[in-house]
Amino acid sequence: MYRFWSNEKVKKTQILASHREGVVRRCVEAGVVLAIQDTTDLEYTTHEATKDLGYINQTPQQGIKVHSCIAVSSKGEPLGMLHQQSWTRKQRSGKKKERKKKPIQEKESYRWLQTAKGAEEGLAEKIQLIHVADREADIFELFAQKRSANSELLIRGEYNRRVKEEMGYLLPMIEQGSILGTMTINLERNPKRRARQATLQIRGMRVTLEVPQNHPKPHNLHPVEINVLLVEETEKPADGSQPIRWLLLTTLPIDDFQQAWQCVRWYSYRWLIERFHKTAKKWLTRAKNFNSKPESVYSKHWLLITLLLGD
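Given the sequence above, the corresponding structure tokens read:
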């Protein structure tokens, strides 16, 4: 088995391609599919003999960065892996001002755009594919990127972006937006809170996002029209945890409360990829015998584990 991992003729792309055929078939049967993206770190600092590891954050920790995209049905049923990429940082991230000056193709954040394209291959013409991601994916180029037919975005917002509308910025605009309705949901537990119920109030409107003023190549981009939802918990949680406040940017319609609520429900499934990564890491602890192998062996082993879990 270890000779298999070390074989340079066995590529990660080949391993994923052999799995993807079944995933596409399940996606077509589902009709509406959420393509949920997220990044995780594989930390191997104690594997001192391992070759080609890199920095995984601003500390001396060594390991591999992995970005995955899983397919999930509109009812929250996992369907398998659509896309995955891994890489190592040869040096720690530079200062934020320096990173902002780089074109998107030279930034790590380009992975969100690449994964959206990769997930669409062979799928977007057959089904409705909705790209779901957290605040790291609040990237203007992702909103501006051309998508395949029947491909939509559902991204949690991070920034108070400039808008063309009268108040000039996104947050004050949506905070004054019309209340579409309220709904009570069950929240899954996570490391920061216990499972509980939450009553959510939803505001929505359509805005035009301006091209960021500090963009290195602003003339290559144009303003983007997009729908915005502000989802807020109406009462302070009894357990002392932070109340829900989601700013969602979407190309899906929000003409009425049912459409808006569907966006919220679909975004609530994003936690599935975090559970997926957590489970895969437990299996990966069995890779201790790879201590002297290169990074490529680790990343192929991780990919196969995630595919087995995805099936």
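The chain has a mean pLDDT of 85. Try to locate this feature in the token string yourself.
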